[in-house]
Design brief:
alpha/beta; Chitobiase, domain 2; 7-stranded mixed beta sheet; two-stranded antiparallel sheet; 9 strands
Length: 262
């Protein structure tokens, strides 16, 4: 993890315990829109896991065993939870988001999708495109982030944040089936333009991490599967090594055979 496609397709990792015993909803403000947004996410979880949320827990603070749970954080920036914001792919602060990464290299889009949006494959083309976010106020967008918890490495945080936006309507539209298939990566910056049109950009910013117990061999297989170029080079090295060993065996066999013949 983390990839928002896992959450959108199956509510993972919150679906591991469908009664939500391992999930904590954290509200960062008390606005009615944030509460409505929380109910939108709760409804989505219920529809996805098809199980009653017996252990639904909602709060505005972190205490005790809540640190060890998967979290869903909703609302405007609150400096009490700065440790969470600093862990996010796009670091948030009171002044807005911190541009400490080059998002022009982080698009979670295929080359075909880049072409459809008329974004050039080269870095210069992507850099020109990403300046949209550098020159636009953060308050215009819903920022959805999916990342490793700073409190426990095997847990995940889903963060919906935005300043001076209708966060309820924005979250509702992100979870709408007609937009879900466009959601991917660990950072989504989006804005509802019209009822049928959403400005939406996906990014892969952080390194992947593993949820739950997994063997080292499985981790290696997963890393290779996500990096085709790495798989190619490992395969090439193995082929060269196998060829070298086979050649050595044949030479030894040839030397021994001719020695016995003499």
């Amino acid at each position: 993890m983390a990839d928002l496609r896992d959450f959108i397709s199956s509510a993972y990792p919150y679906s591991i315990y469908p009664d939500l015993q391992d999930t904590y909803f954290l509200l960062t403000d008390q606005s009615s829109k944030s509460i409505e947004a929380l109910m939108q996410v709760s409804r989505f979880l219920g529809e996805s896991v098809k199980y009653p949320p017996y252990y639904l827990e909602i709060g505005q603070d972190l205490d005790g065993d809540q640190y060890g749970k998967n979290m869903i954080v909703i609302g405007e920036y609150n400096e009490k939870f700065d440790e969470i914001y600093r862990q996010a792919p796009l670091v948030l602060s009171k002044q807005g988001y911190i541009r400490d990464i080059d998002l022009s290299n982080k698009f979670a889009l295929s080359l075909e999708e880049l072409a459809e949006r008329e974004i050039e494959e080269n870095k210069e083309g992507r850099t020109r495109f990403i300046r949209l976010f550098e020159t636009t106020e953060k308050s215009n967008y819903l920022i959805t982030q999916f990342f490793q918890s700073p409190y426990q490495s095997e847990k995940t945080i889903l963060l919906f944040s935005g300043q001076n936006i209708n966060i309820s309507e924005e979250v509702k539209q992100v979870l709408d089936p007609k937009f879900r298939e466009k959601i991917r990566g660990d950072l989504v910056i989006s804005q509802l333009v019209s009822p049928d049109n959403r400005e939406l950009f996906n990014f892969d910013v952080q390194e992947k991490y593993f949820v739950g117990s997994i063997s080292e061999i499985s981790k290696i297989y997963s890393m290779i599967g996500e990096r085709p170029i790495l798989f190619f080079f490992i395969s090439l090295i193995l082929v060269i090594l196998a060829t070298y060993l086979l050649r050595k065996v044949l030479l030894l066999y040839k030397a021994r055979y001719h020695h016995d013949a003499d």
